[in-house]
Amino acid sequence: MSHSEQMSTVRASKKPDMSKSTTQVQLLHDYLHISAQMAPEKVALVYKKHRVTYAELNARSNALANTLVASGVQRGDRVVIFSDNSVETVVAFWATLKANAVASIVNPLTKADKLSYLLNDCRPSALIADQHLCEVFAIPAKDCPYLKLVIVSGDIISERLSTLPNSQRWDSAIATGDPNRAPKRQCIDIDLAAIIYTSGSTGDPKGVMLSHRNMLTACTSISSYLKVQHDEVILCVLPMAFDYGLYQMLMAFEHGARLVLERSFAFPAQILNLMIAEGVTGFPGVPTIFAILAELKSLKGYDFSRIRYVTNTAANLPVKHILMLKDIFPRSRIYSMYGLTECKRCTYLPPEDIDRKPSSVGIAIPNTELWVIDESGAKVGPNVVGQLVIRGATVMQGYWEKPEATARKLKPGPLPGERVLHTGDYCKLDEEGYLYFVGRMDDVIKSRGEKVAPKEVENALMNIPGVREAAVIGVADEVLGQAVKAFVVLEAGTAMTEKQLQKVCQSRLENFMVPKIIALVPDLPKTDTGKIKKTGLS
After folding, report:
1. Lowest mean pLDDT: which of 60-69, 88-97, 517-526?
2. Which of 367, 366, 356, 377 is closest to 430 using CA atoms?
3. Which phi and psi (to 5°) does residue 79 adopt?
4. N or C: which end of the chain has fewer CB within 10 A?
5. pTM score of the predicted model
6. CA–CA distance, 379 with 427 (Å, rounded to integer)
């Protein structure tokens, strides 16, 4: 570590009182501005060997924002950021907002055809991309008629750069902009801050439109129940192209905390060592990450005493993983959560309830209301399965230029003039108001005249010792209509047959839910966010 980095670390150990700021948060990028005012020398971001302070991030994003504006980016224009988790991605996000524009971070695993679709869908004025993705973005960028500027980071071959519309090197774009002040502020909090594209597993990707108010509300709500503090050190191995990863940065900067950024959890031992070295206090993950942890044999050798909280979303945790996390992180609060991009977060399970309601995804997040309805739209009582409805300021503005898809999701609410989110998820509430996720409405299997929720079968399989992952789908069957088929990945060293798994299921599930077919597979297809991708199963 260099002398300057050592000094930054020493200064960062001081605890500035972030509550003394007199600047009112009105727009999302106020988080960065205020934190840079209150603790300019505090390390805001750790990425590989880079340690970047709040003052440095603020200055770089000011400079880039001024370059964007000078190139013709105007209020409400879209800026696509096509890059891995990196310092450049963080700077580009804040710069876009400071330029009064709308940020859309696209996953770096996206292929050229899909990227071309996204560029033509949101019609960005600027593209900010990393050079190692040049083979993917070069042709889509060249063919996109809306781009006024392409900024490329990294060591680039000049011939490739010269073929792109109004292209600039990253270092040049930073050097030519004024680092001392952001462009003139034009937005108000109902303006769009971001467009986050859904995976498009059931059709073309849809751009979820989120305003500054949407995202500020979500940050305030989530960080309040997580009890995020200014001395937090939050690990993010989740893609920032998706809301769960992006919000780790937003909540860290909201409180003037430190974000430790990595591209993925591909090298778990390396990440665990990093957690210890940086003194990580917040560890957000998904079921696939925790499944990897469950197979590691040397976890007892790590000192995780500084971890204050562990969060999970995408699916409720199997009981065996809850027990594993409590064992590995004995001093941490474990949060099981549920949400969707269209409203960021719906529920969280208070850590004190995880033992008595392990299969629940909890209660409504602060400043949000939820209920369950039947097919006629009427509210249902406890333990009745129906569609979940969400009401609150986190609910999206709609899908970008897809009014019909928007109308299917956003419908009139109980109060005049409002719209509420119909999630498309089957859920139920118990007598205490705790929510249980049953499954996607599109995923429900109809077998023997009964409705089978794949999630219920998956939960039964996942709680069998030795099962690492499970995915359940319906397949055509002449007698049953649809038969329940399960794909199971076993933990390393586990010897178990399909018949044995079926027998355990028979002891835990109703007859019509027991998989007729079980296939043992070495792995399961995943989406860019690490979720199991059922469209690849048959």
Report:
1. 517-526
2. 356
3. -125, 120
4. C
5. 0.86
6. 12
Four-residue CA torsion sign, 389, 393, 394, 397: positive
pLDDT at 14 (0 to 100): 43
Instruction: Count CB atoms within 10 A of the CB of residue 457.
Output: 25
> 376 exposed, middle or buried (CB, 10 Å; 0-12, 13-18, 19+)?
exposed
Distances from the Cα of 356 to the Cα of 76, 287, 319, 333, 359, angstroms: 47, 20, 11, 15, 9
Start-to-end CA span in the chain (Å): 51
Q: One-letter amino acid identity for 367?
A: N
Which run of H or E residues covers position 484? strand 481-490
Residue whose tokens read 């902009």: 177
Query: Is residue 262 within 8 Å of residue 274, measured between CB atoms?
Result: yes
Query: pLDDT-derived band of residue 484, with 50, 70 and 90 as boundaries?
Result: very high
CA 252 to chain centre: 14
Is the Cβ–Cβ distance between 100 and 183 less than 8 Å? yes
Q: Could you tell me which of 355, 358, 305 has the C-alpha nearest to residue 328?
A: 305
User: How would you list the strands of the sheet with 192-197, edge to edge?
Assistant: 167-169, 149-153, 126-130, 78-82, 102-106, 192-197, 207-211, 398-399
Distance CA 25, CA 242 (A): 24
Helices and strands counted in the chain (H then E): 16, 27
* Strands of 170-275, DSSP E: 192-197, 207-211, 233-236, 258-261
